[in-house]
Design a protein that fits this description.
The chain has 88 residues and is of the alpha+beta class. The chain has a single domain, classed as Conserved Hypothetical Protein Mth637, Chain: A (2-Layer Sandwich), CATH 3.30.1200. It is 26% helix and 36% strand. It is built from two helices and five strands, in the order E-E-E-H-E-E-H. Strand 4 and strand 5 form a beta hairpin. The longest helix has 14 residues. The chain is globular. The N and C termini lie far apart (26 Å). The model has no long low-confidence stretch (mean pLDDT 95).
Length: 88
């Protein structure tokens, strides 16, 4: 199975969780969870998994545990899905 590395820009505290759009080439992930105790990061990983149609366990954090800019690995991720999400 292929692994797709995806740069993310996480925006915590949003009104609702949404994956889509681009910020400096990174996929924008808006989450309602606050940036406290890793809750926004966990919510972002779950949102990315749902957007790609894979299990949560297929999405792992590569870099950026405490940053809004992150890189995740999506096992079984589809480049066409990523391109569509980046378009918004």
């Amino acid at each position: 199975m292929t692994e797709l590395r995806v740069p993310l820009r996480v925006r915590p505290g949003a009104g609702r969780t949404r994956v889509g759009g681009s910020y400096g080439g990174a996929l924008v992930v808006r989450v309602s969870a606050p940036a406290v105790d890793g809750r926004a990061t966990e919510a972002a990983l779950a949102a990315v998994a749902a957007a790609f149609g894979v299990r949560r366990s297929a999405v792992t954090l590569v870099t950026g545990a405490t940053s809004r800019s992150k890189v995740v690995a999506v096992e079984g991720g589809d480049r066409a899905v990523l391109d569509a999400l980046l378009q918004g």
